[in-house]
Design a protein that fits this description.
2 domains; about 230 residues; mainly alpha; flat; 8 helices
Length: about 230
């Protein structure tokens, strides 16, 4: 079992990372063909590999690929095969960008930076909690699946496992409600909504943040221009 994990981080403000992720998503959506879209996957995959091990990335990718394949097949059936491939590749690109963003910053840093930028704390907390809830539920889902498989219930995959899906979703749903209740109690105990909240870390946009954002905007503009001429 692989236990090592890379600790590389991109030393930029969370707001800058979020803006760069949005620009990358725009580039993915503007891609004119799956061949040009493949060019975007090179820096994305290089950054992901730099920030985490291949084993961890593959375990995440196994959950995403079925959704990507299904979306591509539906689009290909409704339109053309090429459109289906492009749609599936774009969805995979968007999910990889989101995965890379979650690797580059923590939900707490993102929420606190948004508060410093003027967003109401309640809204920023919802964003942070939502980001954390996804990873927690993914871990809970893996634990439930392993526990049910240990009991001899085949829910790993395949059409035969469909009738056993209630044995997977029911305990997962119960744990989700328990987590929500515990979160509400913790928020109340910590005085959620009190004014004058202070922050341990200071979030400031430095020169390197503005340079990174300017480069991102320039690359995105050139990419959109090239894709419009490609068509």
């Amino acid at each position: 079992m692989e236990t090592t994990q890379n600790t590389h981080r991109i030393d930029l403000d969370p707001r800058t990372l979020f803006a760069l992720a949005l620009l990358a998503a725009i580039m993915v959506m503007a891609a004119a063909s799956w061949a040009t879209l493949a060019v975007l996957f090179i820096p994305i995959l290089v950054l992901i590999r730099w920030m985490e091990t291949f084993g961890r990335f593959w375990r995440w990718l196994r959950w995403v690929l079925p959704m990507v394949i299904f979306f591509g097949l539906v689009t290909g059936w409704a339109f053309t095969v090429e459109a289906g491939i492009l749609a599936g590749a774009k969805l995979l690109g968007l999910t990889c960008i989101g995965h890379l963003f979650f690797l580059s910053t923590t939900p707490e840093d993102m929420a606190n930076a948004l508060v410093k930028a003027g967003m109401p704390y309640a809204v920023a907390f919802v964003v942070s909690a939502g980001m954390q809830f996804v990873t927690v539920l993914a871990r809970k889902a893996r634990e439930v699946m392993e526990a049910q498989q240990a009991r001899g219930i085949p829910i790993a995959g395949g059409w035969r496992a469909v009738r056993h899906f209630p044995a997977f979703f029911t305990p997962l749903l119960v744990q989700a409600f328990q987590l929500a209740e515990e979160l509400a109690e913790a928020m109340e105990a910590r005085g959620f909504g009190r004014q004058g909240r202070s922050f341990y870390a200071q979030y400031r946009l430095t020169l390197k943040d503005w340079i990174a954002f300017a480069i991102g905007v320039l690359i995105t503009g050139l990419w959109i221009w090239s894709q419009s001429h490609w068509r």
